């Protein structure tokens, strides 16, 4: 076993709050909502008619027209975010060892729109009219595959599918790949495009979505007593992870270091979280131990915070179990109040939020927190961003099937790194 260090050198975003890093961050800290009426399809028969859609996105800005027609929307998002992340990292693909460059991407459902479209083609026109590109457009691993094909990255290529924890697991496994000395560079994060007729119908049938249709911007309200469900979202956020020496050798601007990863399972229920939060608490404890720090060393928690009655309550319980009395002192916020819930891509987005919060010294708020739930009584940074010196940030993800994952990021200390290299 080796113990290499992994750092973040680039971020790319395609989100409901903007398709550039600066637009996304500006809208996030200003407390703007990316939620609005669904425009992708007719919602007249749906109980929930709102979503956090990506706006003003043209895949042909990133992918040739012919190739774009052979990809699902989630893959368009993944390739676009990757292009921006690679540029943000200042990474020259021609100068890296492509055999030691990997892609680990998370997605919950993959090419669902393609599946729906081609199923209709089969029913309406017969099986011989189904596109020959149906399978390679739809399968969940194709986002990662297409990234590798575009950049010629021949290292490990994996797609993690663990519901809403998918891209948190992806980034965690990317961290471990570097830590073990098996990769110099890993493109990681998540991509999801689930604002489709079938997906929204399914979540409506579960009564999981907010029905605050007359107030889209106020619909996602984590930890608020009036919360009534999550708001579905779409997009992709990609991080460039590098082995520290590799990043320093090329003079990269290091945004943060990833130091902890924990993953667990509730082993309780297919959709409902463990009401005692034991699985989520276990993931946090594992990540804290992995990072070699104490709970009181955490300055900021980006909560899973979905705005569902059960999730917000159990996550609060889990935080209290892990942090004890310090739970009331650490800042906690849910950026899903603004971005909606990107399902399998949510963890990648929230990992990026932690990196940016450390890098820029601002904690994004939890908007729409007007009437606090008495059972959710922590400091959720309500409604207004907060300037703060953040050295260590933690992010949680909790998914159907009982999946839990936690990541820890720390401010990178170049002087400490240089001293350790001398030793």
UniProtKB/TrEMBL annotation:
- A GO term from the CC aspect: cytosol
Show where the Ketosynthase family 3 (KS3) domain sits.
3-411
**Which pathway features in its UniProt record?**
Lipid metabolism; fatty acid biosynthesis
The record's listing under CDD domains reads: KAS_I_II (cd00834)
Major enzyme class: transferase
Q: Which reaction does it catalyse?
A: a fatty acyl-[ACP] + malonyl-[ACP] + H(+) = a 3-oxoacyl-[ACP] + holo-[ACP] + CO2; (9Z)-hexadecenoyl-[ACP] + malonyl-[ACP] + H(+) = 3-oxo-(11Z)-octadecenoyl-[ACP] + holo-[ACP] + CO2
What Pfam families does the annotation carry?
Answer: ketoacyl-synt, Ketoacyl-synt_C
> What is an annotated GO biological process for this record, any one?
fatty acid biosynthetic process
List UniProt keywords, sorted A-Z: Acyltransferase, Fatty acid biosynthesis, Fatty acid metabolism, Lipid biosynthesis, Lipid metabolism, Transferase
Q: GO molecular function, one example?
A: 3-oxoacyl-[acyl-carrier-protein] synthase activity
State the SUPFAM superfamilies in the record: Thiolase-like (SSF53901)
Q: State the active site.
A: 164 (for beta-ketoacyl synthase activity)
Return the EC number. 2.3.1.179
Homology family: Belongs to the thiolase-like superfamily. Beta-ketoacyl-ACP synthases family.
Biological function:
Involved in the type II fatty acid elongation cycle. Catalyzes the elongation of a wide range of acyl-ACP by the addition of two carbons from malonyl-ACP to an acyl acceptor. Can efficiently catalyze the conversion of palmitoleoyl-ACP (cis-hexadec-9-enoyl-ACP) to cis-vaccenoyl-ACP (cis-octadec-11-enoyl-ACP), an essential step in the thermal regulation of fatty acid composition.
- What is this protein called in UniProt? 3-oxoacyl-[acyl-carrier-protein] synthase 2
């Amino acid at each position: 076993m080796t113990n290499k260090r992994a750092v973040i050198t680039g971020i790319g975003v395609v989100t409901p709050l903007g398709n550039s890093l600066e637009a996304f961050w500006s809208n996030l800290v200003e407390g703007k909502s990316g939620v609005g009426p669904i425009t992708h399809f007719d919602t007249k028969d749906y109980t929930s008619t709102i979503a956090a859609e990506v706006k003003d996105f043209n895949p042909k800005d990133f992918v040739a027209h012919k190739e774009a027609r052979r990809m699902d929307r989630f893959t368009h998002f993944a390739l676009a975010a990757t292009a921006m992340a690679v540029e943000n990292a200042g990474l020259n693909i021609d100068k890296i060892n492509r055999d030691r460059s990997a892609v680990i991407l998370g997605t919950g459902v993959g090419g669902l729109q393609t599946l729906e479209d081609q199923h209709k083609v089969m029913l309406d026109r017969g099986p011989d009219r189904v596109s020959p590109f149906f399978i390679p457009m739809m399968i969940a691993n194709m986002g990662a595959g297409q990234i590798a094909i575009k950049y010629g990255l021949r290292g490990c290529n994996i797609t993690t599918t663990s519901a809403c924890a998918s891209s948190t697991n992806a980034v965690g496994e990317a961290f471990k790949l570097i830590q073990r000395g098996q990769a110099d560079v890993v493109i990681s994060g998540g991509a999801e495009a689930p604002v489709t007729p079938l997906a929204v119908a399914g979540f409506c049938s579960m009564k999981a979505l907010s029905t605050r249709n007359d107030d889209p911007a106020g619909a996602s309200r984590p930890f608020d007593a009036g919360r009534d469900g999550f708001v579905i979202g779409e997009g992709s956020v990609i991080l460039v992870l590098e082995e520290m020496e590799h990043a320093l050798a090329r003079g990269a601007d290091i945004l943060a270091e990833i130091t902890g990863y924990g993953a667990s399972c509730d082993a309780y229920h297919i959709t409902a979280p463990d009401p005692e939060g034991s699985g989520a608490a276990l993931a946090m404890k594992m990540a804290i131990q992995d990072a070699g720090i104490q709970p009181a060393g955490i300055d900021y928690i980006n909560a899973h915070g979905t705005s569902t009655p059960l999730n917000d309550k159990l996550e609060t319980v889990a935080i209290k179990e892990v942090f004890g009395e310090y739970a009331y002192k650490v800042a906690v916020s849910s950026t899903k109040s603004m971005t909606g819930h990107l399902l399998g891509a949510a963890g990648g987005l929230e990992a990026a939020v932690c990196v940016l919060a450390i890098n820029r010294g601002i904690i994004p708020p939890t908007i729409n927190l007007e009437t606090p739930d008495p059972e959710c009584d922590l400091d959720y940074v309500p409604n207004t961003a907060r300037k703060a010196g953040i050295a260590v940030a933690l992010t949680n993800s909790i998914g159907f099937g009982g999946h839990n994952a936690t990541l820890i990021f720390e401010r990178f200390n170049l002087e400490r790194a240089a001293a350790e290299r001398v030793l």
